[in-house]
Amino acid sequence: MSKDEQFMDADWIPFHPNPRKPAYQPPAGAVDAHCHVFGPAKSFPFAPQRKYTPCDASKAQLFALRDHLGFSRNVIVQASCHGRNNDALIDALLSSEGLARGVAVIAPEISDDELNHMHDAGVRAVRFNFVKRLVDATPRKVFLDIAERIARLGWHIVVYFEAADLEELIPFLKQLPTIVVVDHMGRPDVSKSLSDIDFQRFVRLMDENENIWTKVSCPERLSNGGPPYSDVIPFSRLLVERFSNRVLWGTDWPHPNMKSHMPDDGELVDLIPQIASTAQLQRALLVDNPMRLYWPETNTEGK
Ligand code: 0GY
C-alpha cells in the first residue's frame, strides 16, 4: 500500500477502547506530560515521509481520557507521523482552554512569525528525535541552530533516543542551551540490573547536568514481561527518588507502535504510587514539575 493512502498500518494496535477507572487518584492539577494526537487524517493528513500510519486519535478523545483518569492538563508531543506539520497539535492546543501545552517538531527555516504563533497557541518546547525507526537523521548543526532560536523564546528541548545511542550523544546533549527532557528514561534495557553500565551512564548524565530532566513513562514499551510491568518499576523509582524535582510522567496515549499488546491507561495510572511512593513525590512528579516547566505563570499553591 502506498504511504499516500491514510489507512492505518495492517499491524497497528489501536488504543484501549475502554480503560478502567484508576483506583489511584492523582493530586489536584495533575499533568499527563507525554501524549499525542493523530489526525484525524481527514482534517490533518499524516506526513508523506512518515514511517508508520496510525489510527486516528483525536483531541476530543484525548481530553475525555484526561478527565476519565483524573488528570487536569496535557502536554501534547508532536508525533513523527505528522512530520514537521504541527497543525493537528496546534488545533488541539487551541481547543484545550489553556489546559494543554505543546512540544513541536520544527524546520530550521521556520519564520519568527510562525514561532510566535506557536508560542501563543501554547507550544513551549521542540522535540529532537534520534530514533532511527521513526525519523530520518537530522544534522546536529541544524538541531543546534534550532536550539539557539527557541531558547530565546524560553522554550526547552525534548529528546528521544535509544539507550545504545546515549554515549555518542552526550557531547551534543551537553551543548544544548536549555532544559533538556529525555523521553522514557532514555529507554533502558530493563532485562539488565540497575547497576548496568548503560543505565548508570544515564544516571550520571543527570547527576552531572542539572538542566537534564526525564519522563518516567512507557513501562509498556520498555517491559519484557508485559503487564503489570514489574520489571520497569525499579528504574522509574530510582529516577523519581534521586531527581524528584526533574521528573515528569505521561501516559504516552495513544501508544504508537506497540506491537506486543495495548496497555490499559487506567492500569498505567495505578502504577504511579509504586514509582513515587509518597504524596510529596507524587505531587512533584504530577503537578509541581510539569507546571514549573509548562505553565510557569500559574500558581499551584494550595490546589
Ligand atoms: C512515543 C514513542 C514512539 C513514537 C513517537 O513520534 C513518534 O512517532 O514518539 C515510539 O514509537 O517509540 O513516545 O510515543
Mean pLDDT: 96
- Give helix % range: 25-40%
Q: Report the C-alpha radius of gyration, rounded.
A: 18 Å
In CATH, the homologous superfamily goes by the name Metal-dependent hydrolases
Q: What sort of overall outline do the alpha carbons produce when their principal axes are compared?
A: globular
What binds here, in terms of ligands, is: (1E,3Z)-4-hydroxybuta-1,3-diene-1,2,4-tricarboxylic acid
CATH uppermost class = Alpha Beta
Structural class by secondary-structure content: alpha/beta
CATH overall fold name: TIM Barrel
Tally of alpha and pi helices: 11
Please indicate the percent range of residues in DSSP E strands (runs of 2 or more): 5-15%
Distance between the termini: 51 Å
Query: How many structural domains can be distinguished in the coordinates?
Result: 1
Profile the largest sheet: 8 strands, parallel
The stretches of 5 or more residues where confidence is low (pLDDT under 50) are none
Record the strand order, biggest sheet: 1-2-3-4-5-6-7-8
For the record, the CATH architecture stands as Alpha-Beta Barrel
Order of helices and strands: EHEHEHEHEHEHEHHEHHH
What would you say about this model in short?
This protein is α/β, with parallel strands linked by helices and 303 residues long. The protein is 34% helix and 12% strand.
Provide keyphrases for this structure.
single chain; 303 residues; alpha/beta; TIM Barrel; eight-stranded parallel sheet; 34% helix; globular; binds (1E,3Z)-4-hydroxybuta-1,3-diene-1,2,4-tricarboxylic acid
